[in-house]
Design a protein that fits this description.
4 domains; 5% strand; mainly alpha; hpI Integrase, Chain A; 3-stranded antiparallel beta sheet; DNA polymerase, domain 1; 486 residues
Length: 486
């Protein structure tokens, strides 16, 4: 075996077992010993290779050459497919769902293939812009194009954070502008929701879901506001039905905002879920959802609408029902019903039920209340008309103002006063018997003038011997015992 020659900081050359190609040994800029084969049996060529390694190590040690920049340059010359595989493994290690990882990886890989990016250094913004133009010409929706850009942008940012790429080449690439809501969804009314559940429970099997399973899926979707991916991730351990209040938990890997969500539910929904979950295996998803949930709910809606139309035997009524939007998949305004419309139903019913904006935002798990109120809340004409009851009546007069002061509630709001006047109207038209109406007021009377006027005005339309019925009497002592409330 040939004796190894030790170099004084110049490295060394030797042959393993005294034969074959030369192997070089040197210290890098970090002081670590490196060994590598020169790939040649020519000693002079091997010496030149070794000298270059030693010089590069000295330049890096003196910071003439930036090791980080050199590493980035080396990584950028690797095949882009290798980087995509490493990025996919990183997404999986972070606990993302398999569906989310697959969608992001497939979209980034398609851009790399269509733009003909062989290595990472080939990524250029002009090719990305060309990809966008081609997809728009092919009729791809703006939101879908932005989804592809988002996935590839996420891959590039990961490569930069891993020191595999330099500056971001997509910093100047803008997303496609989305004008308005590309798909306008409408929420279901409570009656539509109840009929949908009833028809689904009696319906046939759709893909892997029985009718009872679909009915429970719709109940849970409207009772929690969960998205499709969140519902598909639920297992028996996700439900805490004995809590106060009962809750359903979505793991952070399946939540859109990437955090664990604990959603409260109604107690009646919890009781229905209790018996249904008793038949489910633990640690197994309780729902086997089809790939297209929109087809599933629309099939149940069409079946429910057909049964609703056939309920009446009157031809005119049937014609009216066929022309209505009740249980329609697409209404006359172009609004559609798909599975995500169940989430819109959840938020809309919360607002109609009197929930504040903050409460509705927290239950919907939105970061911006504008999204809750402007996109997920849809009110009808009747809802808007009902809010007008809080306005003052157009028939208000000076007598009305005196009447409300006589009750001792001068500071009552107009909305409360309007409801109060409705209760008073029954008394004003009633006939009553009271011996006091024979008396004429005197100056010695201890009743305040305002109360006396109020009492007399209430009895102008009453005869002396008539008696009011039980429905016209009021339980409010402010009117029957006015003296006690002066």
């Amino acid at each position: 075996m040939a004796k190894r020659r030790r170099g004084n900081g110049q490295g060394a050359l030797y042959k393993r077992k005294g034969r074959g190609v030369w192997t070089m040994s040197w210290f890098d800029h970090e002081g670590k010993r490196r060994k590598k084969s020169t790939g040649t049996t020519d000693k002079a060529a091997s010496q030149r290779i070794l000298d270059k390694k030693v010089r590069d190590a000295a330049l890096r040690r003196e910071q003439v050459i930036d090791p980080l920049v050199e590493s980035v340059s080396k990584q950028a010359r690797r095949a882009i497919g290798e980087h995509l595989d490493d990025w996919k493994a990183t997404l999986q290690s972070k606990g993302n769902s398999s569906k989310r990882v697959k969608v992001a990886f497939d979209r980034a890989s398609r851009i790399a293939t269509d733009c003909r990016f062989g290595v990472l250094a080939d990524v250029r913004p002009d090719r990305i812009q060309q990809f966008i133009a081609e997809r728009k010409a092919a009729g791809m929706a703006p939101r879908t194009i932005n989804g592809y850009l988002q996935a590839f942008r996420q891959f590039i940012r990961w490569a930069i954070s891993e020191y595999r790429f330099g500056a971001d080449p997509l910093s100047g690439v803008c997303t496609v502008k989305v004008v308005g809501e590309t798909r306008s969804r409408r929420p279901l009314s409570p009656e539509e929701y109840y009929r949908l559940i009833d028809v689904a429970a009696r319906g046939p099997v759709f893909v892997h879901l029985t009718g009872s399973d679909r009915a429970m899926l719709y109940r849970l979707a409207v009772g929690t506001g969960f998205r499709v991916s969140e519902l598909a991730s639920l297992t028996s351990s996700s439900f805490d039905l004995d809590g106060n209040p009962p809750t359903v938990t979505v793991k952070a890997a399946y939540s859109k905002r990437r955090r664990e969500d604990v959603q409260p539910i109604r107690s009646d929904l919890a009781e229905v879920l209790r018996s249904w979950l008793a038949q489910r295996a633990p640690d197994v998803p309780v729902f086997k959802l089809p790939d297209r949930t929109a087809d599933m709910i629309r099939a149940d809606l069409r079946r429910a609408r057909a049964w609703w139309i056939r309920e009446t035997h009157d031809r005119d009524r049937r014609r009216e029902r066929r022309q209505s939007d009740f249980l329609a998949v697409v209404d006359h305004g172009g609004n559609v019903v798909d599975f995500h419309a169940m989430r819109k139903t959840y938020v809309t019913l919360l607002i109609k039920g009197g929930a504040t904006v903050k409460v509705a935002q927290e239950l919907a798990r939105h970061s911006d209340p504008k999204l809750t109120m402007n996109v997920y809340t849809k009110l009808g004409l009747n809802d808007l008309a009902g809010a007008l009851d809080g306005l003052p009546s157009v028939s208000g007069s000076t007598d009305d103002a005196q009447a409300i002061r006589a009750t001792g509630t001068d500071d009552v709001g107009w909305a409360q006063y309007g409801a109060q006047r409705q209760r008073e109207s029954a008394q004003r038209s009633a006939t009553q018997r009271d011996d006091d109406d024979k008396r004429t007021p005197s100056l010695d009377d201890h009743k305040p003038l305002r109360i006396m006027d109020r009492r007399d005005s209430m009895r102008r339309g009453a005869t002396q011997r008539d008696k009011a019925t039980s429905r016209t009497r009021t339980d409010d002592l402010c009117f029957t015992k006015a003296l006690l409330y002066h």
